């Protein structure tokens, strides 16, 4: 409620639309994170196996979710360009609720797989939500609006594990029931108060098979070739962000001997700082500098933050690096705003879908790269023990992205 109050207070117009979108994004991201606190116990029960086996099968669930995001984000975005944002978001919310109830009554691993498939499909609504924001904003204030939406996205990752942990203490199935009920309530709210925002829907016959075919996906990339450098830069940045979620717990345990409570508290603090950055810092900077400068400034801060964290030998340096990295997250909002301004309103869903697909793609391969790198540099036989390797690699990806954008800017 506090999160929604912050968002509501900062929007003078289109409040009903923004509140609905914010709740939808929080539910989507919370639905992804709510499973983590109860997943180990749930898998151990359904598989009748130990925690090591449960962890292996848990990775499969994450992979399934990411694959669905990769495939369906551009599809839902394109569908919303033709049929409007309202029906896509409402149907997705119903799908989200159905998934939650399915997970709550799961009695086999295959049902969990099915649940993750549905969650990945319906959770790909971030692209449609961002397209909705593009519908109701102009170029001058879009960056600020995207900052608020990204704040809601981050808030979901705070709320999800918190709900899962607290309610899951009573019963491992209760978090899913709770989320399903919230999803239904938001569907009802959206049905009565969320109007259609896409007033310039594409004309012509919609061809679903063309939309999902690999050839069409390649054509979509070709359509955006003029901004290919920005899309590549966005991909590198998206990949780098997975270093945090993949290795933070392992890194702090190996480097600083943190316990579960310290790790949990640190993640909450990180989420709160990230929320404040998107709410206030982005809003302030959007009035002072262009989207491109916002991206460059953010990339510089992110890279510096990653390198400081990777070599930190004291907690104070770790938090300094983390603070810089979180302030650098303004580049994500800059990317979204700049790219949305490069396409016509009729193609906002397609563009945001492309960005969603990129996020899904990096979720598939980046976590493995970072966790395996951590393993190689921390195992007993490692030539050099370097637990911060994942953050150094992420910093290098950020620098490559920054270099590409600067060279592209100079050439123009």
TrEMBL record:
InterPro entries: MFS, MFS_dom, MFS_trans_sf, Sugar_transporter_CS, Tet-R_TetA/multi-R_MdtG-like. The chain crosses the membrane at residues 17-39, 51-76, 88-106, 112-133, 145-167, 173-194, 227-251, 263-285, 292-310, 316-335, 356-377, 383-407. Residues 17-412 form the Major facilitator superfamily (MFS) profile domain. It is found in: Membrane. One of its GO terms (cellular component) is membrane. The keyword Lyase does not apply. One of its GO terms (molecular function) is transmembrane transporter activity. It is a multi-pass membrane protein. Keywords: Membrane, Transmembrane, Transmembrane helix, Transport. Pfam families: MFS_1. Belongs to the major facilitator superfamily. TCR/Tet family. Resistance to tetracycline by an active tetracycline efflux. This is an energy-dependent process that decreases the accumulation of the antibiotic in whole cells. This protein functions as a metal-tetracycline/H(+) antiporter. This is DHA1 family tetracycline resistance protein-like MFS transporter. It comes from Myroides indicus.
